[in-house]
Every structure is written in C-alpha cells, then in structure tokens.
C-alpha cells in the first residue's frame, strides 16, 4: 500500500482484475490482505469467524508492531471499532441513544442553520480570494465538525485542533515520532473535554457517557470513554467531510448529472448515495482479523492477518454494478446496495446523520451558487496523504 495515498481507483481496478482478495504490504513491511470485491467484502464484514479485537492480530501479539506504527491506533484504540460480541453490544448500546431516528431528525433545523451560516462564510472567503475559496476548509469541514462537537459537548475552541490531530491520526505516511505525538496530544485534548464535562455536565453525549460510567463502573472504563470520543470525533467529521468534498467534485465535473438533480429527475439523496459508491470517503479501512484460516473467493486469508476493507474498490466492482461501474450516475439502479458505510454488526452508527448533513449541504450549496465550479483542474487537486481516507486535501471553487 502506498503510504502517500493518492487516487485509489486505477490501482483498485488492477487488483480487482486479479481477484476479489489481494495480499498487500502495509507500512513498515507488515504483511496484510485487502478484500476488494463487493460480494467478498459483504461476506467478510459479516463473517462469524472475523474479529475486530486486536487480540487476534498475530503480529501485534508477537511484539512485531512497534509503538508509533501509523496504523496502530486503528488496531488498539478501546471502543466500538475494536470490540467484539458482548463488549461491542455494550458500547454500541451506550452510543445508539444519541443516534435514534428521532434525535437525528431533531438535529435537522440546527444542521440547516449551520449550513446557511457556513455558506455566508464561504461567500466572504471568496470575496477575499478574488472569487475563489477553499470549499473544504470553509464549508465541508466545519459543518460535520460543528455538528459532532455539539453532540459531544466540545467547545468551539477545540475544533481546529481536533481536526488537525484527526488528520495526523488517519495519515499513513506519518513518521513514528509524529504519530506518537499526535495520539498523545489527542488524548490530552479529549481528557480536557472529559474534565470540562465532568465539572459542568450538560445535555450532551459526553456528559451522558460520563454518567453511565459513574453509575456503574463496569459500563464504560476511562480508556473506553476516551477511545469512544476519539472514534466519534474522527468518524463523525472526517468521513462526512470527505463525502461532501467528493460529491461536489463529482457534480462539478459531471454537469449532466447535476442537471438531472436540478431538473427534478434525480434527488440530492441520489447524489449522496452515488458518491458513497463511486468515490467512497474511506478507501481502505483497518482492521479485521480472521480467527481461523478463512477461504474467501478462493483465496486463503491466514488466521491473525490484518485485513483492510476495500470500500473504494468494492464500490466500482463491475461484477456487482455492471460494465458502467466506473461511471458517476445519480439515477443508477440501486438494487445492489453499496458497502461504504459498512455491513453487519459494525455498520456505521452515524450513517443517517452523515446522509442528512451531506444532503443538506449539497442542496443549499447549489441552490445558492448554481454556477459553482472547480477553480483548479481536478487532476491538479492535492490528494490525501493516506490510503484510509479518500479525498483531496483542498477544493478551490469559484462561486460564480
């Protein structure tokens, strides 16, 4: 895997031509595998003999994975994404109260108001930039970050710092020293959030999690509390940030598809679903581990191997989506559902919130700036330095 990331689709197509499962070399020459085909990935994500807990990561348990390994946090952070069975159900049940359909719908007015305010900021940034502004910085990032931090009770003064640290934690080209420093600073920052909410609890999710821990000490340990907040901060804004960015890129470079939406032949929700499939905000997500030697699509994945879920590859698998799988089509038949938000027990808990944020963002953005277009050729846009996140580092746009 290229630690510098870049656009994954050409490499994915080459790998898929050879099979649904591929052997890969992770940073630090760690042997791993990736599941790329749609059907194989769907089976793998829900397989009873596949675990998330790093106790099943053979190389880690053998002491072969050093501190500072850029992907170590994905394997070891305490929380839902590294828990199995009863532990996973316990942690997910605590979080699910914040993501009921009613609570998500109650957020709609706040999301619509925040979106409108950020569009004002985007317009001001364009005025200061000769008509050009970075949509990712001024719109796509602060929208989901503002929403998730409001849910968690995180003060606005922490937003920029938490985004910077999140970027470093998901980077795959970062040095061991910088990786350790970013993780330590993130733990310190989240510790400050916990301390603030412990002293002054509110109606936010962090306060509720602290109360659950204090009411029954075995419900949520201190490391699980910090790990859960880390998961929520990163997953709660990085993926939606990439989703909005990728959707705007796609619509600006496929004006015929944008016309289908504005003419009423497709919806903004269709654009969100097609972006999730065609240009998944997460390219390869770490990790899952077979608890026994597992044969998938004719390929053996040895027990204890760290496996990447290849969402960006599965989304363009022609065996699942037909010969036009690599085309962006908002009116595509959706009989085959994409896997970009997961599948099985670990399906993304925040999926309804991400969809609402992205749909609201696109609808208001193009209603206010119908002639919005890229200010830089798409091929020249700098890519994420990660094979986990899939997007561009900035998105300069001209509003009119």
Apparent shape? globular
Strand order of the largest sheet: 1-2-8-5-3
Structural category is: alpha+beta
Radius of gyration: 21 Å
**Largest β sheet strand count, sense and barrel closure:** 5 strands, mixed
Helix content: 40-55%
CATH superfamily: Cytochrome P450
Mean pLDDT: 93
Whole-number total of structural domains: 1
- Provide the β-strand percentage band: 5-15%
Report the strand count.
10
User: Spans of 5+ residues with little confidence (pLDDT < 50)?
Assistant: none
Fold-level CATH name: Cytochrome p450
CATH C-level class is Mainly Alpha
N-to-C order of helices and strands: HEEHEHHHHHEHHHHHHHHEEEEHHHEE
How many helix segments?
A: 18
Q: What would CATH call the architecture?
A: Orthogonal Bundle
Between the first and last Cα atoms, what is the distance in angstroms?
Answer: 39 Å
Quick overview of this protein structure:
This protein has helices at residues 9-18, 38-45, 58-61, 72-76, 85-96, 101-106, 108-128, 135-140, 142-152, 159-170, 176-199, 205-215, 222-252, 255-262, 268-278, 311-314, 318-321, 351-368; strands spanning 21-26, 30-35, 50-51, 132-134, 284-290, 294-296, 299-301, 307-310, 373-374, 396-398.
Describe the fold and architecture.
- With 400 residues, the protein is of the alpha+beta class.
- It has one domain (9-398): Cytochrome p450 (Orthogonal Bundle).
- 52% of the residues lie in helices and 10% in strands.
- The strands form 3 sheets. The chain has a 5-stranded mixed β-sheet with strand order 1-2-8-5-3.
- Pfam families: p450.
- Belongs to the cytochrome P450 family.
């Amino acid at each position: 895997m290229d630690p510098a990331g870049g656009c994954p689709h050409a490499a994915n197509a080459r790998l898929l031509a050879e099979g649904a499962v591929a052997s890969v070399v992770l940073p630090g020459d760690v042997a791993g595998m990736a599941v790329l085909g749609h059907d194989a990935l769907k089976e793998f994500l829900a397989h009873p003999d596949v675990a998330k807990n790093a106790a099943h990561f053979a190389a880690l348990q053998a002491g072969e994975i050093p501190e500072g390994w850029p992907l170590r946090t994905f394997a070891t952070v305490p929380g839902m994404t590294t828990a199995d069975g009863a532990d996973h159900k316990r942690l997910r049940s605590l979080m699910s109260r914040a993501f009921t359909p009613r609570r998500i719908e109650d957020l709609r007015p706040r999301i619509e108001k925040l979106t409108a305010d950020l569009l004002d900021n985007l317009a001001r940034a364009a005025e200061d930039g000769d008509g050009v502004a970075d949509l990712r910085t001024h719109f796509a990032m602060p929208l989901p970050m503002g929403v998730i931090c409001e849910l968690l009770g995180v003060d606005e003064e922490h937003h920029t710092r938490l985004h910077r640290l999140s970027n470093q934690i998901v980077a795959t080209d970062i040095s061991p020293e910088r990786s350790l420093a970013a993780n330590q600073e993130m733990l310190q920052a989240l510790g400050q959030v916990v301390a603030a909410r412990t002293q002054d609890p509110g109606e936010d999710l962090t306060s509720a999690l602290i109360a659950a821990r204090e009411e029954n000490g075995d419900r949520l340990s201190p490391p699980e509390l910090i790990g859960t907040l880390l998961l929520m901060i990163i997953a709660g804004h990085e993926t939606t940030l990439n989703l909005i960015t990728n959707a705007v890129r796609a619509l600006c470079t496929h004006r015929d598809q944008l016309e289908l939406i504005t003419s009423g032949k497709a919806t903004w929700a269709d654009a969100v679903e097609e972006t999730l499939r065609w240009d998944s905000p997460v390219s390869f997500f770490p990790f899952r581990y077979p608890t026994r030697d597992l044969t998938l699509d004719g390929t053996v994945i040895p027990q204890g191997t760290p496996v990447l879920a290849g969402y960006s590859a599965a989304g363009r698998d022609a065996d699942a989506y037909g010969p036009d799988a690599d085309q962006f089509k908002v009116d595509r038949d959706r009989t085959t559902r994409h896997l970009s938000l997961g599948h099985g027990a670990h399906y993304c808990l925040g999926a309804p919130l991400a969809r609402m944020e992205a749909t609201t963002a696109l609808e208001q953005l193009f209603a206010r700036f119908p002639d919005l277009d890229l200010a830089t050729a798409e091929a020249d846009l700098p890519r994420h330095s990660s094979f986990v996140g899939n997007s561009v580092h900035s998105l300069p746009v001209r509003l009119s």
